[in-house]
């Protein structure tokens, strides 16, 4: 992707004082004269930042402004190690709200909407980000947070919520509960802003169909503000990234070389205006591609495609490398398979055994044919044959946050 002159100027402006403000970058770029960065090619020679780098300076080693300028911190969950703590200045909080309000506007949300916010609050960036953007736009925020489905649905009905904000897992759980109770006609939902985890087309179609809403994918991560740095538009041909706040690259995960637009690789992000914890060439581990050309919606903001997965999501069975997105593709094209699935990987008597559980409304011979079809498609696309087992609709677990789908008990 071509860096604009404005983006280069913003980066060079940051670099003039970055080492003085940030002990983290003073050490990271100790052997680099940042004043020598004059072109995109120069910039692409800089070392990457990794999540482990951020963990190593826990708790506040990323801070690049004096204490009195910090108004808030957010943090990653720390479920896979030491958490990453991100400090925010007032400008950072305002800039985040500006970006999130743009997301709502791109999704067609207006100040007349009532926005039902179910993602969690607290150290996680989700709930409060959805609320900030909503208030910036001028719509009514209904800050529910996750859980207590009975109360969610009562408030949704009584307050006339028109926009649902949720993880895809919780949106599906709510959609199924609304269908089971037969209350869809009592609701006023018209839009869904969904994020925080990747999800397949069948799941998207189920949520959209059962709730009767238009769905938009929102993107973000704790290290780079949080959700709200990009969203899909009415064309649903990728997610627009707010490139006046974030510069995007896609690299080959193995070599680190920047890839041409259109090629799938690892997304790398650089903040252009962040004060509290600026990030330079941060490897997200998210796999996507930059969508070439301008979107038919007319927005000049660049697009990344729906995420394929993460570099650390890959699992290997019987010599075959595979990602959850590939499993979802198999589910998508298998007639009779619903959206929900689990992959179980075990080592039995020294051999890897791969089982794909999937929900289906079919029974008897029809279910057996569906299982056979799924196993055949899986073999053709991913290179190994699973034990495909159809289970009744609703049998696999639902989650209020992110649904775990790959279970590997070999290690």
TrEMBL record:
Segments forming domain AMP-dependent ligase C-terminal: 319-410
Keyword flag NADP: no
SUPFAM superfamilies in UniProt: Acetyl-CoA synthetase-like
EC number from the UniProt entry: 6.2.1.30
Keyword vocabulary terms for this entry: Ligase, Nucleotide-binding
Domain of life of the native organism: Bacteria
GO molecular function term, any single one: phenylacetate-CoA ligase activity
Any GO BP: phenylacetate catabolic process
Pathway given in the UniProt record: Aromatic compound metabolism; phenylacetate degradation
UniProt cross-references to InterPro entries, sorted A to Z: AMP-bd_C_sf, AMP-dep_Lig_C, AMP-dep_synth/lig_dom, ANL_N_sf, PA_CoA_ligase
Record domain AMP-dependent synthetase/ligase: where: 44-269
First-level EC class: ligase
Similarity section: Belongs to the phenylacetyl-CoA ligase family.
Subunit description: Monomer.
Protein name from the UniProt record: Phenylacetate-coenzyme A ligase
Organism placement in taxonomy: Bacteria, Bacillati, Actinomycetota, Coriobacteriia, Eggerthellales
């Amino acid at each position: 992707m071509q860096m604009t002159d404005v983006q280069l100027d913003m980066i060079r402006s940051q670099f003039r004082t970055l080492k003085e403000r940030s002990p983290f970058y003073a050490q990271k770029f100790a052997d680099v004269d940042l004043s020598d960065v004059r072109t995109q090619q120069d910039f692409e020679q800089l070392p990457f930042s990794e999540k482990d780098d951020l963990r190593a300076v826990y708790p506040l080693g990323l801070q690049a402004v004096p204490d009195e300028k910090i108004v808030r911190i957010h943090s990653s969950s720390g479920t896979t190690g030491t958490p990453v703590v991100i400090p925010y200045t007032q400008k950072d909080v305002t800039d985040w709200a500006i970006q999130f309000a743009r997301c709502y506007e791109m999704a067609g949300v207006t100040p007349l909407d009532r926005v039902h916010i179910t993602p969690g609050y607290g150290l996680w960036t989700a709930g409060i980000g959805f609320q900030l953007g909503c208030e910036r736009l001028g719509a009514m925020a209904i800050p529910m947070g996750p859980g207590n489905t009975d109360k969610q649905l009562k408030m949704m009905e009584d307050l006339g919520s028109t926009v649902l904000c949720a993880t895809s897992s919780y949106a599906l759980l709510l959609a199924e509960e609304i269908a089971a109770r037969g209350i869809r006609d009592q609701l006023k939902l018209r839009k869904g802003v969904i994020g925080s985890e990747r999800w397949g087309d069948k799941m998207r179609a189920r949520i959209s169909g059962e709730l009767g809403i238009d769905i938009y994918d929102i993107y973000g991560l704790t290290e780079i503000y949080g959700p709200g740095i990009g969203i899909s538009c009415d064309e649903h041909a990728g997610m627009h990234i707010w490139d006046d706040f974030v510069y995007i690259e896609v690299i080959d995960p193995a070599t680190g070389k920047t890839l041409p637009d259109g090629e799938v690789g690892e997304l790398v992000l650089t903040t252009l205006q962040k004060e509290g914890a600026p990030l330079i060439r941060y490897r997200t581990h998210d796999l996507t591609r930059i969508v070439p050309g301008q979107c038919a919606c007319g927005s000049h903001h660049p697009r990344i495609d729906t995420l394929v997965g993460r570099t650390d999501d890959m699992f290997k069975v019987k010599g075959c490398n595979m990602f959850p997105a590939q499993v979802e593709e198999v589910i998508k094209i298998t007639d009779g398979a619903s959206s929900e699935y689990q992959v179980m990987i075990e080592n039995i008597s020294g051999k890897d055994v791969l089982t794909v559980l999937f929900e289906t409304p079919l029974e008897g011979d029809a279910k057996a044919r569906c299982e056979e079809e799924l196993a055949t498609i899986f073999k053709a696309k991913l290179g190994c044959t699973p034990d495909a087992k159809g289970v009744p609709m609703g049998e696999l677990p639902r989650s209020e946050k992110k649904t775990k789908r790959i279970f590997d008990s070999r290690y």
